[in-house]
User: Which sequence fits this backbone?
């Protein structure tokens, strides 16, 4: 077993911090849903590579929200802060009660103590007893990651720290009867893909490397992955960073396991030896490198038979602005015999991010594809796109937000989501620091705003008209 630090007493943990660390805030409530604002600081003629309200960032933190039918509540995590002026990261947990239509005051799971980077945002899992598991992302070896468990089932009232370890972009999956399979990234000089498993969430296997591919002429590798779960099948699509250059991310690959990580296979069941090291691996499903196109994978879903679908965006370069033209949205679908690749629409930024919903032949994409109010910045107005022929053709069904002050971005679906809280996101001005408000929506495209300020413990969100 890997060597981990087990801490259930938060006071003991805080004693390990430097003397000038802020006072303990874990398990305290704050008076409203305030998202983190962030700028990467990589500017070109048309602004930063990405910036704005990033409370539901990144697409590689999976999932952020889970509906629990046993209690008719949606539990969710996000990157928060106490105010735009503070603007440092609090890893938060919230809950929406479908019976009352109210949200509780959110709970601080982990106080990042001055770190403002939403790469450290949390993700969420729930075990078969109803305990919530919050996986707080670290950042390479500079900042560790943490796993927390709720003190009580189906409750955000308090969390215990279970482990501290190296992990970025946490993507936990819970398989009933088996436990957790956790996909994540390690910074080994570059970004490489790993996984670990645990029967109980406390005792974990050693980290096992899955992917670190490069060409003979490359010194480095690099990848980003987006994962999904269909019963006991866990899969992920991933791209490749030529010679470790994240700004050249390209190609789409696919891996899956149906036996809790004992074997990893291609879509048609061919077992592959891991870690994958060759960019020409049989895991390759879409080749974009020779076309000079970047690939940004946004979401994963499945048809009724469990065949995987990837939602992604492709374009000719990493910098924002008109030079790289409109970015094309696609769905990549395994129909049971072959891969189908179908265009949806375009938008103006590589980091425009949305979610894919699948109900039989009707597929829905909800994404910020309307390029206002801050053109060339990440996000925009939120639009619903629909297909009634399994992704072959698409129509613009509804615009969900209009005349907004700030761009909306990172629309994230709820696992087993139920109306009215099927997906949620945050807004923010990508051009300068602003407040960031959180929203959620239903299957018809109705939108509610989470309360930015709360006086009571529970409050009814306001419908946005």
Assistant:
């Amino acid at each position: 077993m890997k060597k981990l630090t087990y801490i259930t007493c938060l006071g003991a943990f805080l004693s390990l911090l430097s003397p000038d660390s802020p006072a303990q805030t874990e398990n305290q409530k704050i008076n409203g849903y305030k998202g983190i604002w962030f700028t990467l600081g990589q500017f070109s003629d048309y602004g930063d590579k990405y910036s704005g309200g990033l409370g539901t960032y990144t697409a590689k933190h999976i999932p952020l929200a889970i509906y629990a039918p046993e209690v008719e509540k949606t539990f969710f995590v996000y990157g928060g802060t106490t105010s735009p002026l503070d603007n440092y990261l609090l890893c938060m947990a919230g809950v929406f009660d479908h019976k009352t239509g109210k949200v509780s005051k959110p709970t601080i799971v982990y106080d990042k103590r001055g770190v403002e980077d939403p790469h450290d945002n949390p993700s969420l899992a729930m075990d078969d007893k109803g305990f919530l598991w919050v996986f707080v992302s670290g950042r390479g070896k500079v900042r560790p990651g943490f796993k927390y468990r709720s003190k009580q089932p189906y409750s955000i009232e308090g969390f215990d720290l279970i482990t501290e370890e190296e992990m970025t972009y946490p993507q936990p999956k819970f398989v009933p009867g088996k436990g957790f399979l956790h996909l994540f990234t390690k910074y080994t000089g570059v970004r490489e893909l790993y996984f670990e498993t645990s029967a109980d969430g406390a005792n974990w296997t050693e980290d096992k490397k899955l992917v670190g591919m490069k060409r003979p002429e490359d010194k480095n590798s690099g990848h980003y992955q987006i994962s999904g779960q269909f019963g006991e099948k866990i899969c992920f699509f991933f791209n490749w960073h030529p010679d470790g250059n994240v700004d050249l991310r390209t190609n789409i690959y696919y891996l899956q396991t149906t036996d809790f990580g004992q074997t990893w296979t291609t879509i048609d069941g061919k077992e592959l030896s891991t870690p994958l090291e060759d960019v020409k691996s049989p895991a390759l499903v879409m080749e974009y490198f020779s076309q000079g196109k970047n690939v940004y994978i946004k979401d994963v879903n499945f048809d009724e038979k469990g065949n995987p679908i990837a939602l992604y965006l492709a374009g000719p370069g990493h910098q924002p602005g008109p030079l790289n033209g409109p970015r094309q949205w696609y769905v990549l679908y395994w129909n049971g015999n072959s891969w189908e690749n179908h265009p949806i629409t375009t938008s103006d930024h590589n980091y425009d991010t949305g979610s894919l919903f699948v109900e039989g032949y009707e597929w829905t994409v909800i994404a910020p594809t309307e390029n206002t109010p801050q053109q060339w910045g990440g996000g925009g107005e939120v639009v619903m796109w629909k297909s009634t022929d399994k992704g072959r053709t698409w129509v613009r069904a509804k615009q969900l937000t209009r005349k907004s002050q700030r761009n909306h971005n990172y629309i994230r679906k709820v696992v087993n989501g139920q109306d009215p809280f099927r997906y949620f996101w945050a807004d923010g001005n990508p051009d300068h620091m602003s407040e960031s408000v959180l929203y959620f929506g239903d299957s018809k495209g109705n939108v509610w705003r989470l309360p930015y300020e709360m006086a009571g413990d529970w409050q009814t969100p306001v419908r946005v008209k």
Summary: The domain at 10-464 is CATH 2.130.10.120 (Methylamine Dehydrogenase; Chain H). The first helix runs from residue 10 to 15.
